[in-house]
Design goal:
The chain is mainly beta and 222 residues long. The chain has 3 helices and 16 strands. It is 12% helix and 40% strand. Strands 1, 2, 4, 5, 7, 12, 13, 14 and 16 form a 9-stranded antiparallel β-sheet that branches. Strands 3-6-15-8-9-10-11 form a 7-stranded antiparallel β-sheet. It starts with a helix and ends with a strand. About 7% of the residues have low confidence.
Length: 222
């Protein structure tokens, strides 16, 4: 009788291969979002995930609005150090749009994340603009603790400021425990910090914050 684990690998691996395109010597992985399978190759925590087949960015992932943070984990993609690139779109609604990426995840509550607050991008208030892009490391270092103990260190403005309701491109570089965030192909990082904890996980996924929905497209990592 054929081993069940062997049979599952025979069935699942061709599907995964069609979703992930691995190119070049640096092992760059590009994810075809149109071929993701909900609850199999993308697994949601505290959100409903929709795969939209067409848009200005091609196929993209939508996470709905709900209380608390939510994640769409990309199953099979492993990331600890290197580069992640993706496009993301939020909304210009105060305290209702927190969108980004979770990485080095062990589970649904233990991970690092970088996220954006689009409603702050072009605020007339300097203090709000200073809170445009944020790094956190859960469960110990969420944004209230970081803002209180290390003001304006783990969150920064974005220059030039993107349009709050348009797609933005994010390049996240994690190297030697340093986390750098580049926005819209700018050669200068909008945020550079030392990672706050030695997270041991390697899960990665699209992230939205409390009361937020978000759209995500064109994911790759290496």
């Amino acid at each position: 009788m054929m081993n069940l684990a062997f049979l599952l690998r025979k069935l699942i691996l061709p599907v995964i291969a069609s979703i992930w395109s691995i190119t070049g010597f640096a092992q760059k992985v590009e994810v075809d979002l149109s071929k993701l399978v909900i609850d199999k190759t993308v697994k949601a925590y505290n959100r409903e995930v929709s795969i939209i087949s067409s848009g200005s960015k091609g196929s993209y992932i939508h996470l709905n609005e709900k209380e608390g943070a939510g994640i769409a984990w990309l199953e099979g993609i492993q990331f600890t150090d290197g580069t992640i690139e993706f496009d993301v779109k939020g909304k210009n609604i105060l305290q209702k749009s927190f969108v980004g990426i979770a990485f080095r995840g062990s589970n649904d509550s233990t991970y690092d994340a970088v996220y954006f607050r689009p409603f702050n991008f072009k605020s007339p208030e300097e203090e709000r603009r200073n809170h445009s892009v944020q790094y956190i490391s859960l469960p110990k270092y969420d944004w209230p603790k970081l803002r209180a103990e290390f003001p304006n260190k783990y969150e920064q403005p974005i220059n030039p400021a993107p349009e709050p309701e348009e797609w933005i491109h994010c390049r996240l570089v994690v190297k030697n425990e340093e986390v750098s965030v580049f926005v819209n192909n700018n050669s200068n990082p909008s945020l550079t910090v030392k990672a706050l904890s030695s997270q041991k996980g390697n899960k990665v996924g699209f992230w939205v914050g409390n009361g937020s929905e978000g759209d995500f497209a064109k994911f790759s990592s290496n």
